[in-house]
Each structure stands twice: as C-alpha cells, then as structure tokens.
Write a structure and sequence with these properties.
Shape: elongated
Number of domains: 1
Helix content: over 70%
Number of helices: 8
Distance between the termini: 44 Å
Number of strands: 0
Largest sheet: none
Radius of gyration: 16 Å
Length: 136
C-alpha cells in the first residue's frame, strides 16, 4: 500500500508554469512545488468556501461593483481570521510531513503566500459567484 506522502503527491496536478531551478529561493520553491499545486487541486473547495462566506455575510458582495468586489475579496481573506484559517487549513491538510516541517519553519511567510494564492484564485474566477447567485 502506498504511503500518505506518495498518495498526496500523486493527486496534485503537475504545473508546467511553476518553474523551479537551482537559484530559486526556498520560499518560492515551496510555493511552486507545494502551494500552487494544492491551490489548483483545491480550487473548487476554495470557491465554495468563499461562496458560503458571501452568503453568511448576507450577500453584500452581490451589491458591489467590480472594483469593490475585488477589495471585498482581499479584505475578507486578509482581515477575517475565520475564513483565513479555514483556507489555510485546506492547504495544511494536504502537506506531507516534510512539507509541514518546512511550513512550520516560516509559517507567517507561507500563510501570506497561501492568502495571496487564494485571493488571486478567487478574483480570477469571480464569475463563479455570479453564476451561483442566479441559481439561488
């Protein structure tokens, strides 16, 4: 039977654009080899978590213009610790033990990278929230 490390790495998508070479900084290396593939794998869950967050906040998001929606997304993830921890948790749960040790060595910097990945992923797919709004 395969161990957890191999199973986790096997389900992650291979990202051709996430370049890593010998002069890549360790934080960027971790982001490209670990965080970005997890973000892509967890994309649907990231969007669903934010959709529930919008609904919980009485759908204020849907009343905003485009620029204010992007600010709303950034502020939600940067300032609301509940959604921020929830999003960080779906990444941490997909770490191998070795990756978790790397993460804990500089968790503040890596949490910031996770937050930024989530912000950019949500902002680039804002149409998802418009489609779900019309289905209610």
């Amino acid at each position: 039977m395969e161990d957890r490390k191999h199973l986790l790495q096997k389900i992650r998508p291979d990202l051709k654009n996430a370049k890593v070479n010998e002069d890549t900084l360790s934080e960027e290396r971790f982001q490209n080899q670990c965080l970005r593939p997890i973000a892509k794998f967890q994309n649907d869950l990231i969007l669903e978590i934010f959709k529930v967050y919008i609904e919980y906040r009485k759908k204020i998001y849907h009343k905003l213009g485009l620029e204010k929606k992007t600010e709303y997304i950034e502020n939600a993830i940067k300032k609301d610790s509940k959604i921020r921890r929830q999003l960080q948790g779906i990444f941490i749960g997909h770490f191998t033990l070795e990756e978790y040790k790397i993460y804990t060595s500089n968790y503040k910097a890596f949490n910031k990278r996770i937050n930024n990945l989530c912000i950019e992923r949500i902002k680039s797919q804002m149409q998802f929230f418009e489609m779900t709004k019309t289905q209610e």
